[in-house]
Structures are given as C-alpha cells and as structure tokens.
Design a protein that fits this description.
The protein has about 475 residues and is α/β, with parallel strands linked by helices. The protein folds into 2 domains: about 270 residues, 2-Layer Sandwich (Aconitase, domain 3), CATH 3.30.499; about 180 residues, Aconitase, domain 3. It has 16 helices and 19 strands. A hairpin with a 5-residue loop joins strand 1 and strand 2. Helix 2 crosses helix 5, helix 6 packs parallel to helix 8 and helix 12 packs parallel to helix 14. The N and C termini lie far apart (about 55 Å).
Length: about 475
C-alpha cells in the first residue's frame, strides 16, 4: 500500500546508492529568466540541452509589469536576464512563452494553464514555489542553481534522501468569506513554518475535495512556507475536468490512457504516513499575518500575541523581533493594522478566481491606498478583461498591470517602500521580501481588496454583507 508520493517517486527512480541517495528522472523542467547561470554552465562544458521537449520556460521574475517592452526594464543586468533567456531558447530549442506571447506569465501559473503540469509527473524548477504544481497530483519541488544545470544537462536529479510523508486532513465546510489562502495560512499557523521540514505533504479531506483546482494551486504553492519539500492533492474528477482540452494535455486516444494511469495514483487505502494532522475547516476564519514569518498569523477577529506569553524563550525572541520590525504592539487587534499599499498577484493568487474575488469586493468602492493588480498570465489578463474585471479595478482606482512576478519579490522594480505596510496576496512576509524595510501582511485576494478600500486590515465578511468601507 503506497501513498501518492511513493508512487510517483518510485516511478521516477533510476537508481539508489547504498547511502540512500537517489537519482530521479525529471518529467518536466520549468525555467524562468533566472536560468541564465544554468545555461552558462552548459556552455562552459560544451553540452547541449538534454531534453528540449521536456523543458518549458517563460520570463517572469525580472520583467516589468508596467510594460512588456524589454527596454522598459531599466536595470541593465535585469534586462540581460530576460534577453539571455530568448537567446538560450534559440540555441537549445525548448518551449518558451516570451514577452510577445499572450501565454507569457508566471511559470507556476502557465504550467497548469497550458496542461504542461499533469498528474504523476516529477517536476522541478529553480524556484521554491514549484510546489504549486502538486495541486494536480504531480510531485513538484524547487531546486538550486547547480541542480538546474544538472537537469538541463541530464534530465535527471540527485536527491540525498527520500523525504518523509505527511498528510494534512481538513474536513468540514468552510464558512462564507474563508478562502483557500486562509486555509493554508491557518495550517501554517498551526504546524509552524518548520512543521513540514523533511516531508512531502498530501492534503486530504472534505475541504480539499470540494476546492477548485485554482484553490488547490494556492494551497500547494505555500507548502514550502511550512518547510515542506512539496505539497500534493490527489487527482480526481476536478483535476481531469480542469486538464481536458488544454494544449499540452493528452488528447484523442491518449486521453483515456492518461485517465487510466491518473486514476491509479491516489494513495491506497491504508497507506501509512509518517505524520498526520487534522483540522476543522468549519472553525476557520479569514486570516492575516502580523509578523515576519508565515506562521505569525491570526484570524482577522484576533489580536497580535504578547511575546511574554510565548511558549519558549526562542519563540518570545522571534515575536519581539517581528513586532519591532513591523512596528506593531502586542494585543493590537488584527483589523486595526494600518495598510499603506496593496498587492494582488503572485504565483499564489493571480488566477482568474482570485481576480474575481478581489473585484467582487472592489466593485463600487474606492481605493484609499495605492493598489496594484497583476494577472498571473496574459491569458488570465485577457479573460479578466473579457469579464470586465479590469474596469472594476480601474474604477476603484487600482493599478491594472502586465503579467509577471511583480511585487512578490523586490527584484523587478515593483517595490514596497521602507516602513510601509503592504497587504499582499503573495506567499512570503520575510524581512525585506518586498523591498528594503517593507512590512508585509499575507492575506487572501478578497481580504487584500478589503484593505485597499478601507486602508487597514479588514474583516472582508463585513464588506460582503454590504457594510460601507
């Protein structure tokens, strides 16, 4: 009896050394504009790209969201990262969705969107949030720069040891206003930012079975914020309906063959996990982070904790440092935290469902702080515009931008100012993540829109009920 993780790991194992180190075959290698060093390593050794047909890329980290003209990237080194990707594609022949392609976007958005991501695959990318793709029943994780060059050259990857397995079961029905982003933040608040270290997490239970594919992508995306190697959801009818008809999904006679394989992937009844956690979705509420770790989170109805009541001296010190950096006080209500800027986007929350949630809150209201909305891909942007969402955002005073990683990480010109509090739908609230001195509060798209129109962290359920901003 095997877990979903076991089945994919075993299928991709080429050999195992006596010390447990395992050589794995890589089914899909996703690359972005940070891949320049990997291709330089190939050139230095005179090697070709081993499997162009299994390599898919797009520029996302360094691109400007003000314009997709490469000349709009003001910093020469960042501009070179993008242009180098184009040159490497011409030389090596991998599939690339470039800046002139409407399919361009964040690599973890376009993979599922194009059907490149499929159940049962082992997928890697030089980005920690590769865990996103596990939402479709793939085993997907981020790798380092030297590992990127190894995969480019060999289509294989060494892993020093097989991770352990963890299952997180969330049963019940989510209350109104509680989204997948709230679910994963609540999980991390419960198990800690290191709670999943050394494990691959499988998410199970009624909440995930009822969740859309886009919601599952959000949850798996933030598995790394719990310290996990990867996050996964077993493929089911939701998965198959999402994948059918996408450009890189099996079609014709290959479709029923793929379904037959995919349906054998879910964990066998009685499969043993090394660690189990259970949560009740019915007890969850909209969440927001108050500190400098994703585990520094509380329901919007809660308060910032008092470091003096921390369970350990280490935790007390972490709380004290976080509050000093965030310039917040113990006991302060979460919904009193002031917000100076809002970001709606990133590989966590930039898909069409996310934009619909934010637009529903923004409709008929006006932003009180600068707010940026960045679709996860050109196709998401086009769909949002066809639904009129961009008009809602613009009428509310939000800034409607071109696709890219944007303000998730301070490397592309989209920055939060020093000392500013930003309500962000991204995945990390580390010190300086969104810019030197930036103070990040992780929230759902609906909560971010609520903060935009009120100027502070706000219980979005109040606005959903018709209260004035």
């Amino acid at each position: 009896m095997k877990t979903l993780f076991d089945k994919i790991w075993d299928r991709h194992t080429i050999l195992v050394r006596p010390d447990g180190a395992t050589l794995l075959h890589v089914g899909r290698h996703l690359i972005h504009d940070g891949s320049r060093a990997g291709f330089r390593a190939l050139a230095a050794k005179g090697l070709p790209l081993r499997s162009p047909e299994r390599t898919f890329g797009t520029p996302d980290h360094y691109v400007s969201t003000a314009s997709h003209d490469v000349n709009a990237i003001p910093e020469p080194q960042r501009r070179e990262m993008v242009t180098a990707m184009t040159e490497n594609q011409k030389q090596h022949g991998f599939t690339m969705f470039g800046l002139g392609d409407k399919r361009q976007g964040i690599v973890h958005v376009i993979g599922p969107e194009q059907g490149i991501t499929q159940p049962g695959l082992l997928m890697v990318c030089g980005d920690s949030h590769t865990a996103t793709h596990g939402a479709l029943g793939a085993l997907a994780f981020g790798i380092g720069a030297s590992e990127v060059s190894h995969v480019l050259a060999t289509q294989t990857l060494w892993q020093s040891r097989k991770p352990k397995s963890m299952r997180i079961t969330v049963d019940g029905t989510l209350p109104p206003g509680v989204t997948p982003k709230d679910v994963i933040i609540a999980i991390i608040a419960r198990i800690g930012a290191a709670g999943g270290t050394g494990h691959v997490i499988e998410y199970a239970g009624e909440v995930f079975r009822a969740m859309s594919m886009e919601g599952r992508l959000t949850v798996c995306n933030m598995s790394i914020e719990a310290g996990a190697r990867a996050g996964m959801v077993a493929p089911d009818e939701t998965t198959y309906a999402y994948l059918q008809g996408r450009p890189y999904t099996p079609s014709g006679a290959d479709w029923p063959k793929a379904l037959d394989y995919w349906r054998k992937l879910p964990s066998d009844p009685g499969a043993i996990f090394d660690v189990e956690h259970r949560l009740n979705g019915a007890e969850m509420a909209p969440m927001a982070t108050w500190g400098t770790s994703p585990e520094h989170a509380a329901p919007v109805t809660g308060h910032i904790p008092d470091p003096a009541r921390a369970a350990t001296a280490e935790q007390r010190g972490a709380y004290e440092r976080a509050l000093a950096y965030m310039d917040l006080k113990p006991g302060m209500r979460i919904d009193e935290i002031p917000i100076d800027r809002v970001f709606i986007g990133s590989c966590t929350n930039s898909r069409i469902e996310d934009l619909r949630e934010a637009a529903a809150v923004a409709k008929g209201r006006t932003a009180k702080v600068p707010t940026m909305v960045v679709a996860g891909s050109g196709l998401v942007k086009l769909q949002a515009e066809s639904e009129g969402l961009h008009t809602i955002f613009k009428q509310a005073g939000f800034d409607w931008r071109e696709p890219g990683c944007s303000m998730c990480v301070g490397m592309n010109g989209d920055l939060v100012g020093a000392g500013e509090h930003c309500a962000s739908t991204s995945n990390r609230n580390f010190v300086g993540r969104q810019g030197r001195g930036a103070r990040t509060h992780l929230v759902s798209p609906a909560m971010a829109a609520a903060a935009a129109v009120t100027g502070h962290i706000t219980d979005v359920r109040r606005l959903m009920a018709g209260e004035a901003a």
